Amino acid sequence: MAAPALVSGPAAGNPATVVRARGFGKRYRGRNAVEGLDLEIHAGELFGLIGPDGAGKSSLIKSIAGVLRFEAGSLEVFGVPLLSDDACERIKDRIGFMPQGLGQNLYPELTVEENIDFFARLRLVPHSALAQRKAELLAITRLAPFTGRAMKHLSGGMKQKLGLVCTLIHEPRLVILDEPTTGVDPVSRRDFWLILGRLLRERNISALVSTAYMDEASSFHRVGLMFGGRLLAAGQPGEIRALAQGALVSVEAGAEVGQQAAALAQLRARFAQVDALGSAIRVFVDQGDDIQAADMVRQALPALPPQAVAAVEPELEDIFVALLRQRGLARPAQDRTSPPPARRQDADAPAIEAHELTRDFGAFRAADRVSFNVRGGQVFGLLGANGAGKSTVIKMLTGILQPSAGSGRVAGADMRSAGFAIKERIGYMSQAFSLYLDLTVEENVRLYGGIYGLDRAAIRSRLQWISEVAELKGYERERAARLPMGLRQRLALGCALVHQPRVLFLDEPTSGVDPIGRRAFWDMLFHLSRFDGVAILVTTHYMSEAEHCDRLALMYAGRVVAEDSPSGMKNALERDCGMLLEINAPEPQAALLALQRNGFAAAALFGNRIRIQSRQAEADSARLPELLRQAGQPGVTVVRRAPSMEDVFVQRVTALEAAELNARKTAR
Amino acid sequence: MKEPFSGQDWRLWLRRVGAMTRKELLQLLRDPVLLFVILYGFTADVYNAGSGVTLQLQHAAFAVHDLDRSAASRELAGRLLPPEFKPIGAITDARQGERLLDSGQALMVLSIPPQFGRDLAAGAPTAVQVQIDATNTALGFLAYSYTTQIFGQYAIEAGLRNQGLSPTALDSLARVDNRQRVWFNPNQDDGWFMSISELLNVITAFAILLPAAFMVREKERGTIEQLLVSPLTPFQVMAPKVLAMTLVIHIGILICLFGILEPVFHVPIKGSLTLFALVTTLYVVNLSGLGLFIATVTRNLAQAAMMGILVLAPMMFLSGIWTPPEAMPIVARALMYISPLYYYMNASYGILLKGAGLRTIAPSILGILLLGGAVCGFGLWRFRRQFD
Lengths: 668, 388
What we know:
heterodimer, A: Rossmann fold, Alpha-Beta Plaits, 6-stranded mixed β-sheet, 21 helices, 25% strand, disordered N terminus, B: abc type-2 transporter like fold, 2 domains, 4-stranded mixed β-sheet, 66% helix
């Protein structure tokens, strides 16, 4: 294993520079995709580029990989200035590049082993070296049992791991991964980052990766925040957090819907960044530290008890939004004050009732006795990895798929006998947004209006409402293809709402939308649920979105394995598995080994930080610095971290997978 | 599950189908590539077929290997006249003739033996050799029969001359005079036949490919999912695509008839255009079932297009455009009777060239109805089934 001397993380002094960009710029048809970008990536570093779609990440990444020409500035890779195609060719044998898209660089019909062999031959890997390298990489990625399986039959996470193996087979010094975890479930995502981290450490490789998931930043050594073609900031995750001034305050305004809405309006009058998050409200206060910020919020809400307001640690996404806002790059969410909290009479009536819903495909049971209820005005989240059965449940409830057994009622109609009536009463929005991209905004709304049987007058008034609520004013005659993703998403939501449905189904609705757009989207959903009493069922991969839901159901292998509120799930996790402690050590790799030797076998490295779970959090936080000092690792700090929804998800699913494996072993 | 229709329901039904049809047409209008292909199909493609494809022998190149070099041999070779034949010169070596045939520079080589003229004058039997490149069987056959006829005529005249009779004496001999009356296309202008048959081919291709393309596009972009959860029935999803296609094809036909067939090829449009439009509507609506079937078994536009070609090729071969049914082997002929294009073709030639009325083409319409109905029903059934 790597000795401490081999660890050349950012902490190891003055490291060599692998990539250096100065005033870099890339233009497409006269439009700047990237401009004036300065960046350095050091040897042995895992550098993450974070930013929404269209921020310029891919342009930068492709230019560094030597596959895209650029117009402005200079770019040096391994000290070679990329001035000509010739120069690009000279660096290519030291680079491994994995393009965006699941298994995009692999051949679906070839087996795992054939894919690896193909890339090895392409890269002229000597035959003698290949066998050993292949064995090592397959062992680390745990793909060894699947060498004979065709790539197309692998899961998303496994495809990405295979992609990584193929990218590493010629032992490059720099690997470049363009959004390697998009579309991969949280468990596989975390696994992917752990494997990548280990490979980088053991082989002293540098990596440049991009991601649209803000919460992945903690697993990188350094991150660069990109927006609108510019690098807003670069540094260690902690440094980035310190860039935005102010603090994040969470408010529990009360259980009554009216109370939360009133507090939201009051806060929006005084603060620029206010968002509803499930039953809570998050306020980013631009001045002062935690205590001062909480006091300012309390002053804004004199009616609330002081303990309802508390400062919380901001997510990187909060920081990102705050940074954009403080630098005048983005408009804060606006208050949609219009609808008064006059609720529909039937708002609290059960909107979705699933009772023991089961669906078999041949011998495979895709949904296994799934039961849950969603009230009007409730946002209900269905979480689960790919293939957990989320889509099957949604398809049954929306009437596309007949259940094999069980029953259910949607919007007051029986799903077995009144499938058609259900279709008229529900709204549905899919991952693909289901818009006709070659039609204009107005034409899309008119089409869906016509499909739901609205007459001209009704369509006109709904068009008015949609362009107001979805902030699409001025875009009515624009083709949907030309809209930014955020607007496209809100238009799709508007189309799904054209007939004022009582129940709304959202199937992974926020892929590819930037944080600002996502916030506007959730703001819309919040108003729909709270004021119009619409019941919303949403499935999502983004665990940070699960926080917006009132209730969550976690699905695994077709079953609902847990159902609770987000905070309830987090509390249960801390109860069952202990508190999450984050350790910041000057030499993280050595500290990790020391911890693993001292009884913390499950300690894992996320970027520069070590995480452990502890049942005696108080005692452990106190004794760990001392324990590590004795192991030759002084200067360690330990903080308690509240678990994220992703922690909950990964923990639960991993435990279930382990249990299933054990059961299978005992059965044998 | 369905309640009986009231007036309100009908309005709703029309509104839904109307909105969807409008959408299909808008999408088509915004697809410049597809628009170009459609326009090309109904104009340039038909023009090319009508002006370029001919079933007659024209400018067939021939070389003469004349070992006799007499007045008689020159006269014989001189009987092969343009426009059917085109002399490319004399050769002096039999090998050279083979080479010309091998390289395709000549379709025929005429070899006249020495003594040819003297033998003829002496009244002794003599022979000439014609070598024909029959790679293209139709052309080879035509060259063979033309030369047979021309040389036969020459032999008779030479025989008469030998007997001291003038060629006009032929009239005094007892013989059968074959006088033809060519109906419907008096000049036997291939342009008429080929341009119309190409138009019918183009109609057939678009009737299958357009609905398939419309449908597969929804699959590719994921919009089909949205339609499935909407209160549209499968029929309401499908019918607008067929409607839009039918409208586009009718516009294309008008452009082709009055932009190409009439002004360029002077095709006389004898029958009722309304009848032609009605028969066409019947045909394309029925045939669209095949397109929808293709859409159910393919995942993207490329696959659908390939599959379309696979379906179209045998339909066209077996339609009677390229070979009359009587000349086909029994199995192919039987297959032809189940190709809807065969019936559509009969009806269309009947209306356009012969001025036939409804009564004359009734059997063809019945054929379209029965076969097309089966195809359409099958397509609809497959289409519905994929929703379950």
